[in-house]
TrEMBL record:
Protein name: DUF3500 domain-containing protein
Lineage of producing organism: Bacteria, Pseudomonadati, Bacteroidota, Cytophagia, Cytophagales
PANTHER family in the record: DUF3500 DOMAIN-CONTAINING PROTEIN
Taxonomic superkingdom: Bacteria
Species whose genome carries this gene: Salmonirosea aquatica
């Protein structure tokens, strides 16, 4: 990851480095969102070919092949939205080149550093502290969730597996289990964690625990969790799985809100979350008549690697460095 970041930085001129590079302590790091908006940093539109290649290689090295393909497909959906919303080719609201890169700290040094890629429906954050890499918050969205119009991307469902397996798990439950799992008949308009620096308002664990599931249901639940973690490089995936196992897989909850039957593009909004002592995963498909998906992975102990950074700086200060 550091090699890829350094390679990207070497492609930049002085003014571009000023735009891209910020101190790790800059609060800009926590000002993140997944809506279409102007963003600080250097976006793909203002890069030359070698810079774009180097920037996207930063993304490629921290994701799995499947995860990187999702990133490319989400970017490509901006072209679909231009057609869907009858926007001109030079439109800047739905722009596949409006994805910006920022680097915090110096990846060539031994001190903690981080970087992010962000644009509409993508917000990726990576922080390295003493060899440990945090990869959350990590947001991916899809609009349309299911491409229905007559374009080359017709039929595409970038986050379809996450939707389908959520329903598969829900439909595996008995009537009594569903009473515990389904928290509300109406889905929320948005994921609860939104773009908060720290997750708040979800302190109460609700739904059905893995411990209360049958062996077959547990396997589906584990596959659903793996769908999200499989987006990332295998080292990061294994790091997160080890953390989940240490905290106890049986302590993971599954909760649902909204329609219990998948009716793609027909206004049947639905939401689910996976939550435990260390992790929060949210899926929401409610907006645009339930054809607009938001998903996020949050590490409740390691977002932005804040706790490790506090520990690092405390030790450095104690040592007089």
């Amino acid at each position: 990851m550091a090699q890829a970041a350094n390679a990207f930085i070497t492609t930049l001129n002085g003014d571009q480095k000023t735009e891209v590079m910020h101190p790790l302590a800059d609060t800009l790091r926590y000002n993140w969102h997944f809506i279409p908006r102007e963003r600080l940093g250097l976006n793909l539109k203002r890069m030359n070919d070698s810079q774009r290649k180097a920037a996207m290689h930063m993304v490629e090295v921290v994701l799995s092949d499947k995860g990187y393909q999702k990133i490319k497909d989400i970017i490509d959906l901006e072209n679909v939205l231009r057609v869907l919303e009858s926007r001109p080719p030079n439109d800047t609201r739905r722009d596949p080149e409006n994805y910006a890169f920022l680097v915090y700290g110096d990846p060539a040094a031994k001190e903690p550093w981080g970087w992010r890629m962000e644009g509409h429906h993508i917000s990726l954050h990576y922080t390295s502290v003493n060899g440990h890499v945090s990869f959350t918050p990590s947001f991916l969205g899809s609009n349309p969730g299911h491409v229905l119009i007559d374009v080359p991307q017709k039929g595409k469902r970038v986050l379809g597996p996450e939707e389908d397996m959520g329903y598969e798990l829900l439909n595996s439950f008995s009537a009594d289990q569903k009473k515990q799992v389904i928290l509300a008949e109406k889905s929320p308009y948005e994921i609860f964690s939104v773009n908060q620096r720290r997750v708040t308002g979800l302190d109460k664990l609700e739904g059905l625990t893995m411990k209360e599931m049958t062996p077959a249901q547990k396997q589906i639940f584990k596959k659903l969790i793996a769908l999200y973690l499989d987006r990332y490089h295998v080292t990061l995936k294994n790091q997160q799985m080890q953390q989940l196992e240490k905290a106890g897989m049986d302590n993971l909850y599954f909760a649902w809100m909204g329609d219990a039957e998948l009716k793609m593009g027909k206004g049947a909004g639905h939401y689910y979350r996976i939550q435990g002592p260390t992790i929060l995963i949210e899926f929401d498909n409610t907006q645009n008549d339930a054809n607009h998906i938001h998903t996020v992975v949050r590490d409740l102990t390691d977002d932005f690697s804040e706790d490790l950074l506090k520990e690092h700086y405390a030790k450095s200060h104690k040592g007089g460095k």
